[in-house]
Write a structure and sequence with these properties.
By secondary structure, this protein is mainly alpha-helical. It has one domain (17-62). Helix content is 79%, strand content 0%. α2 (12-25) crosses α3. The longest helix has 32 residues, at 31-62. The model has no long low-confidence stretch (mean pLDDT 88).
Length: 63
């Protein structure tokens, strides 16, 4: 099993929020558009990270 503490997973939430907001703010000037773009970017990053996590869990299970 992966030996990562659940406490370290809490660092994921603010990191994704900051990345999504900065990425959205570089594309738009309107606050509503920034938040909408940030929401979509955050969902995309979260999905990507979930896929990576699933692959790592499967590789750990196979070894």
């Amino acid at each position: 099993m992966l030996s990562i503490s659940p406490t370290y997973l809490l660092y994921y939430v603010p990191l994704i929020i900051v990345i999504a907001l900065v990425f959205g703010a570089t594309r738009h000037e309107n606050t509503e558009l920034i938040l909408r773009h940030s929401w979509h970017t955050g969902r995309w990053i979260t999905g990507f990270m979930a896929i990576i996590f699933a692959v790592l869990c499967m590789l750990d299970w196979m070894s």
